[in-house]
Structures are given as C-alpha cells and as structure tokens.
Amino acid sequence: MQLDEYRKLAEVEDQMWYFRALNRRCAYWLKRLLPPGAARVLDAGCGTGGLLKDFKKAEPAWQLTGLDFMPLACELARERTGVNVVRGSITEMPFSAGAFDAVTMVDVISQVEESASALKEAARCVRPGGVVLVNVAAYMWLWSYHDDTCETKHRYTRPELVNLFQAAGLTVEFATYVNMLPLPLIVARRKLFPPTNPTSDVQLYPAPIEIGFGALAKMEFAWTRHGWPLPAGTSVFVVGRKSER
Fold it and tell me: According to the model, what pLDDT value does residue 102 have?
C-alpha cells in the first residue's frame, strides 16, 4: 500500500463506516470464540492500529500485539494504541509456534502474492484450539482504481478463502460475504461512475452517507452474528480454529 494511504487511514479509520463495521465484527467473533480473560491476540498486518484500538475497548484483558511490514504503519500504530507493534512480514512472522490464542489478518492477505503462506503462518503462530480470523476483498470482477491504489494482488471468493483455511489445517467456524447491502452502490461508484482523480475509497464521506452505510452495516451484523452467512458482498470474512491435537 502506498505511504499516503497509511496517512489517510490513520486519519479516518476511527470514524469511517467501513472500519467501524469491520472492527465491530472482528471483536464480536473473537469474544465469541475465545475463552474469557487475558487472551494473547496478534493483529498481523495491523496497519495504523485501528483494529487494535477497538480490541482494547472491546476486551481490556486481551494482551495485544501488532505486526506490519511498513515502518510508517508500525510507527503510527504504536503512537495511536500504545501496543507493542513488531515490524515483519505476514508470510514469515517473527514469533514462535503457538505464541498466540488468536491471529487476525484484516484486508492484508489480498496484498501479498503468498496468501497460502500467510494462512499457514497464522496457523503456526496460534496455539492448538486457537482462532484465526481473516477479512479480504471479494470478487475479481469488482477490481477498480481502489485496488490499484491499495496495491491489491487478488480479490477472493468465499470458497477460495475457505480452501486456504482448510489447506492451512484450520477448521472453518464461520464464513460469509459482508457489505452485501451497500454492494450495488459500491459497484456503481467503482465500475460505472468512478471519480475523476481516483485514489482509494478510504475517506470520510458526508454525514448522511456515513450514517446510511453505517445503518446498513448494523443490519448485516444483526444477521451474521447469529451465524447466518450472506450470499454476496464486497468482502469475504472467515473465522477458523486450529485443531486441539
């Protein structure tokens, strides 16, 4: 991802509807699948720390660690969260086997060529019975200026991501598309009416748009929290567990 995008991300991710919905969903599923107490949670590809900030609010007992390859992202994440953030690659994580109770990789394996290696590294770094949570961009047909700016390598289908989990030895607990309700509007913006000078769609929109999209995201969350998957969306969300043996 381009350096300017990290600065943009740090400015808007605490307020933009997309990240508020994403972080709420991640925190919910971790709390649902992890035992209560001081779980060790790694956010691999933590960017500028927005998810780590929301994890701190969701469960203060969690022992959080961040990992990112870009020095600027590590610096911003440390400043914004106070969490230990380590520089390193998601395909060669600098941690011992079983070091964590959970590993999250949010909108990051879409940006590396070796996505299978990243999933295997996440599986290696969680203890037996530990949780791996991944969110990725959906559908290659939805490729746009947004992906060019963010340096996306691949957009996934749900079966593709489920297969990566299974190949890494992870049992899938829940797999769904997300952002189904906003999908028609996002398709229209990216494919039919792109901006004149496009960067990425990581930005704060006028309040009515933020409120409206936020309401749609809450409706989806109310559905998926019951374990009911959505059939389409702009992202794929999968949570898996490492075998106890």
Answer: 98
Tokens 């769609």: give the residue: 201
Backbone angles phi, psi at 135, to 5 degrees: -125, 135
Q: Give residue-wise pLDDT tens across range 34-75.
A: 999 999 999 999 999 999 999 999 999 999 999 999 999 999
- Name the token pair of 125: 């770094």
Q: How far is CA 145 from CA 76, 150, 213, in A?
A: 25, 9, 21
Residues 6+ apart with CB under 8 A from 77: 46, 47, 48, 49, 52, 66, 68, 83, 85
Cα–Cα dist 58/39, whole Å: 12
Q: In terms of Cα–Cα distance, which of 75, 236, 241 is closest to 170?
A: 241
* 208 burial type by CB count under 10 A (0-12 exposed, 13-18 middle, 19+ buried): exposed
Burial code of 185-205, b = ≥16 C-beta within 10 A, e = fewer? ebeebbeeeeeeeebbbbeee
Task: Categorize the per-residue pLDDT at 1 as very low, low, confident or very high, splitting at 50, 70 and 90.
Answer: low
Q: Kindly report the pTM of this predicted structure.
A: 0.96
Longest dimension (CA), the chain: 54
Walk me through the domains of the chain, giving residue ranges and CATH numbers.
Answer: 3-242 (3.40.50.150)
